[in-house]
Amino acid sequence: MIAAYAARFADDAVSGLEVGSRPDPVAREGWSVVDVRAAALNHHDLWSLRGVGLRAEQLPMVLGTDAAGVTADGREVVVHGVIGGVGTDEPRSLLSERYDGTLAERVAVPTWNLVDKPAELSFVEAACLPTAWLTAYRMLFTSGGAAPGHRVLVQGAGGGLATAAILLGAAAGLEVIVTSRSPERRERALALGAAAAVESGARVPRVDLVLESVGQATWSHSVRSVKPGGTIVVAGATSGDASPAELTRIFFTEITIKGATMGSRDDLAHLLAFLARTGVRPLVDSTYALADARAALGKLAKGEQFGKIVVTP
User: Fold this and answer.
1) Contact in structure between 136 and 211 (CB atoms under 8 Å)
2) Which residues of 279-300 are buried (b: 16+ CB within 10 A; e: fewer)?
């Protein structure tokens, strides 16, 4: 089969990617092979190409954590990319960390990880969901406990996570405030349904919940923007680990800090139902053929996208 895989580690990430022939996945007990119809890119793919979470002896490794496709018996599915974890003998990992990922014509995953794709969603739309959209859903509703009328601060506009949080939050009756250094991205956030879009670091009304994925560059602003007793949900640190942690303010104002890595299979099923019922759809920035995966990763690495970049085998 044809796949996009990490052949070597590189500081610029993209030069370590190769697109070529890889062995077909083999079905085994408890696992299913899915014919991939669409797979979305994530920053996880770029980190993998830089050697984060992978060892040299694991290469070549097919990249990708998100996919939608069809099983051998014709079932249309969305792949939940978290393998193992709590309550299982399998250590928790994401596809492309221990097992080949989704940027391929076919992928093998535990059968339990397959969720039925609603007929209302296309394969391209469904493929956008299992990482960024699932993480946003879990941050807002499972970990963050957001309810209609709550005010939510989303640090950083433009990426898949922020886009998902705006669209999901607006559909659920939340007041979503987004930060960005880019005037263009702030305008686009407002067009998607954000209640306000402000310069990074600007003062905002105290919020019930902060979605934090930037880290060091925004952490102090997040801690100062959440109301006493509020919650900050952390799903990444793209600008580096927070320093200092501002522990005094956290304990004195009784702020709750929670971590989120994607979400559970149940979260994914609930997210799919949410989109099927409400008509909310992921914003797709662009689609590329699998053969052009390097160009797609290059666009992601430059930060030129607004919404998800999808590869179609």
Assistant:
1) yes
2) ebebbbbbbbebeebbebbbbb
- Per-residue b/e over 126-165, b at no fewer than 16 CB within 10 Å? bbbbbbbbbbbbbbbbbbbebeeebbbbbbbbbbbbbbbb
Length of the chain in terms of residues written: 313
Helix (H, G, I), strand (E, B) or coil at 134: helix
- Six-digit token string for 105: 């014509």
Q: For residues 308 and 288, is the Cβ–Cβ distance under 8 A?
A: no
User: For residue range 25-62, what is the model confidence (pLDDT) as tens digits?
Assistant: 988 899 999 999 999 999 899 999 999 999 999 999 99
Asked if the model's pLDDT at residue 218 lies above 90, the reply is: no
What integer is the mean pLDDT of 273-297? 96
Tokens of 311: 């590869």
Beta-carbon-side half-sphere exposure of residue 297 (alpha carbons within 13 Å): 27
Q: How far is CA 162 from the centre of its chain?
A: 10
Cα torsion through 148, 264, 130, 232, rounded to 10: 50
Bridge-based pairing of strands 151-155 and 175-180 is parallel
For β-strands 2-6 and 17-21, DSSP reports them as: antiparallel
